[in-house]
């Protein structure tokens, strides 16, 4: 039996003022495919993923995170979670109902502790997808999302309490204390992580590639295309996954990754990793040294969408 009502991360939805430039980034550079939309909204899928879409881009006057969407096993789980959150004082944005987005399904929305809109859904139709072949340097699926929080300990406790996420590992600094909390809802090391930051914001969205060779090829392709690189290639200690971080046209951080660790629930114990040890940030030792400049690139702008539900 699953320890969390959440099965996985479905999609991340963002709003941006320069809509055409953001759409071009995902199609021409990042390796996603459009699966529908209308004049001011475009849905993007990963060729290797059964999810109807993993990113939605909406035209808006201001940049914001519209929502993150999480999967649940079935309608009964959706109903039970909505009822439970209501009794626990969580603000519901919408009650459980049939969804009008691609693939349909059944779900509801609520605000997390800092006002991000979260959707939980089940019974979404799967998309016809395919096996990503050797040397194809495009995303297979959405891997994880990381939030910046000025009160990360409270955010971590909120996701543990209300959605039953479990702590996999923590990155800490001897003077600053905790910096990153990696949270799982399945055997994947983390689907969500919370990072200490100066304000509520999106830290980064991560996309998994087929394997190490495809990850390196994809990272190199983006560098050659002139996409601003922040950090990488390298391999983190927590999660044991590779990383290369880039900026999209609106300053959001997007990551290519692969080989994220899986967890054995019977034997796993969370570790505390010291970021002053170089191996914590990059086991390989080939990425740029993690410094204040790199951290600031991922602080992002304060999110304009907190406690304001997106229009769709």
TrEMBL record:
Top-level taxon: Bacteria
PROSITE patterns with a match to the protein in the record: VOC (PS51819)
Family annotation (InterPro entries): Glyas_Bleomycin-R_OHBP_Dase, Glyas_Fos-R_dOase_dom, MMCE/EMCE_epimerase, VOC_core
Residue intervals of the VOC domain: 8-123, 141-259
Keywords noted in UniProt: Metal-binding
Keyword DNA-binding in record: no
Pfam families xrefs: Glyoxalase (PF00903)
Name this polypeptide is given: VOC family protein
Organism, scientific name: Nocardia fusca
